[in-house]
Amino acid sequence: MNVDLLPARADLEGASPYTDVVIVVDVLRTTTTVPVLFDQGLAAVRLSPSLRVARRAAAARGDLLVGERRGVPPEGFNYGNSPVTLAQCDLSGHDAIMVSENAPEALTYLSDARAVALGSMVNLDAVCDWAIAKVRTRVDLVCCGFSGEPDLDDLVTAGLLADGMMRRHAALRPTGATRLALSAVQSYADPLTALWASRAAAYLRGLGLERDIGFAADLDRSRTVPRMDDPERVHGGVLYPFRPASCHGG
Predict the structure, then answer these.
(1) What is the pTM assigned to this prediction?
(2) Partner of 198 at 20 to 30 A CA spacing, among 60, 151, 186, 227?
(3) CA distance 201 to 130
(4) pLDDT per residue over 50-66, tens digit each?
């Protein structure tokens, strides 16, 4: 069981440390929002860091555009990334292209991983069940951070996930920043307090999006595990496709 505060690059020989099960954590807000999209009926979502690629792909496919730049929806997008708002929408019968600033960057380092999913507090138990059903030798929890630096929201979420997985699988041993993440969980009275203290939460509060912070701390409101398919190269960029997986595999 390994926690990385930020994605780890390949070594000097080009070998990636991520070869088995990887859970990407960007709790404020991408990995909280994607399960909501599926719970509201969306069939598939493709993540992109690029507005240009997202717009071209959505136009070609007839997909919805979901996303943010500096916390707000870009011009021409159907929705932003607010889970509070999206939880009120009926998305049945649609696919979407989603733009965010941290999670897609982390996904670029995971090409050698055997299985990749998105984890947060809202789908914590489901992700733990799924990862334990899939793991062979190692689970990596990869935090996305905020503006290129580690942040408390992802660290505490990774700690909760690591604790849940190690309780389910006695052979998993903590490596990397796992013990730090577990200690961070113990330092806060509840998940919302930890999220509220993060830099990402301060940024959202400055945009008037504080309700998203409370939503992200609502433990186990979803049983949906977004599982990544093979990346797609389109329009001069890369899309990272996700579909809902069974919590017991798939």
Answers:
(1) 0.96
(2) 227
(3) 28
(4) 999 999 999 999 999 99
